[in-house]
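Lab notebook, bench 4. Still working through the backlog of constructs that have no structural model yet. Next entry is a single chain of 243 residues. Request: give me the structure tokens for it.
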Amino acid sequence: MSIDFVISAWRAWAPGLGDSSDWLRWRRGEASVADVGQPDVSFLPAMQRRRLSPLAKAASATAYPLVRDRDIPLVCCSTHGEAQRTYSLLCDVAAGQPLSPTAFGLSVHNAIAGQLSILCGIQSPTLALAGGDYPLQAGLLEAAGMLAEGTRELVLLFCEEPLPEMYLSSACSPQYICATALYLSAADGDVAGFRASIEYRAGVQSPSAFDEPGYQLPLIAALVDETGRVPVGRNRELCIHGD
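Model written out:
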């Protein structure tokens, strides 16, 4: 049994890699993730840009082209979310410093989803997920369930950032910020894009995002190839069938 949908469009960002041509060169081995880089969020007013963390800027730059001028549901999935903001607040608590209500509001797990809904004028349902060990499975199943219940289209966003140094003794950390946004559509209509499905396959095992936090890269590789099978959890894989 499979759960079918269409990937109508996608975007991804990591330092030095921002558009489809960058990711194609990366896939060919002609480009790699840069040591530093900033996403282009010049489409946002300066006051709003200043409120965004580096992770939120990457998420905004990735999702905005897909939701621009569309009021559609948004699902934002991340293992750790705004880890750097949260850690900074915890340091203030430990030092007995007063906490900024604004900083706290921007650190919670649904902060990025909330900011995107405001920045893009989204009034449709917006959901934040803690992805746990298998964020691809968590996000894709949630999105597929929404499509199965009658939602015609939505944007699914994955985003991660490096963890603070304090946590590195107990958890693997992403080496850089990465965000991936998928524009998903129901598979029961004449919709352009990649036909995709979540399928059961005995013995398939995706590494935990706590052990291999670069879980977005196999997904991006399959998107660039327009075909492929990506393990997303226990006995589950994402199959991209192309046009």
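Notes after review: The beta strands are 2-13, 74-78, 126-130, 153-160, 178-186, 194-205, 228-242. The chain has a mean pLDDT of 92. Flag for follow-up if needed.
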